[in-house]
Amino acid sequence: MKDWNKILKPLLALYRNKRHPLEYQNLYQLLVMVVLSAQDSDANINKISPALFEAFPDMASLSKADMDSLIPFISKVRKFNTKASWLLEIAQIIKEDNNIPKTLDELVALKGIGRKSANVILRESGGKSEGVIVDLHVIRVAPRLGLVTELKDGIKIEKQIMTQLTEDMWAVGMPISFLGREICRPTNPKCDECILNADCDFYQTTI
User: Fold this and answer.
1) Do residues 101 and 144 lie in contact, with contact meaning Cβ atoms separated by under 8 Å?
2) Could you tell me if 113 and 137 lie in one domain?
3) Are residues 48 and 106 in the same domain?
4) Is residue 22 part of a domain?
5) How far is residue 158's CA from residue 161's CA, in Å, rounded to a whole number?
6) DSSP label at 180?
7) Considering its fold, how many domains does the chain have in total?
8) Family, per the entry (predicted)?
């Protein structure tokens, strides 16, 4: 049986301090951008965010917004109507930046924030890892490695990773995502450049 804690430590060390691709400036911006980025690209959210945050620079200003004032700034985001309603409800509940939750349970209680989003917020804000970030890249890479047997369900993949690793290694979710973005691409993965290829099922069986 593979010791995944030992195998993944170099990956965690490589990417531990690399920021998420969302270009946020503070926790408020991070939360809003994470909500907007669901089923959309980080690049698109980065593009629309400067004007959005000029109009609504903090949670207090967002809490005074309505659909008509918010939607023009996010109309190029997928499912913008739904996301607008989520953000307005979140702002009504939180009201001030310093009230933004710092735990996974409190974050997932908010509309539009699931476990993946909550784990991203905790990681980027320096909070304690309470789970593993599982995005589309992790869903692709983790089964390739042989780290998990589940192929599609992000929640099941997260649970399997958590059982394979000690809690101090749960922060490896985002490093696995970065590996997927840079090396373990959907097509033509750069396996020869991967620091995990010696322990990767995909590399060992297909390359």
Assistant:
1) no
2) no
3) yes
4) no
5) 5
6) H
7) 2
8) Belongs to the Nth/MutY family.
The torsion angles phi and psi of 102, rounded to 5 degrees, stand at -120, 10
- With a cut of 70, say whether residue 6 has pLDDT above it: yes
Query: Tens digit of pLDDT for each residue in 27-38?
Result: 999 999 999 999
Q: Are the C-beta atoms of 87 and 49 separated by less than 8 Å? A: no
Angle at 177 between CA 174 and CA 178, to 5 degrees: 90
Question: DSSP secondary-structure letter at 96?
Answer: S
DSSP string covering 43-94, please?
Answer: HHHHHHHHHHHHHS-SHHHHHT--HHHHHHHHTTSTTHHHHHHHHHHHHHHH
Q: Which value, to the nearest 10 degrees, does the dihedral of the CA atoms of residues 187, 188, 191, 192 take? A: -170
Looking at the structure, do residues 52 and 105 belong to the same domain, yes or no? Answer: yes
pLDDT in the model for residue 1: 84
Kindly state whether residues 77 and 112 are assigned to the same domain.
yes
Per-residue model confidence as pLDDT tens digits over 38-68: 999 999 999 999 999 999 999 999 999 999 9
Amino acid (one-letter) located at 94: I
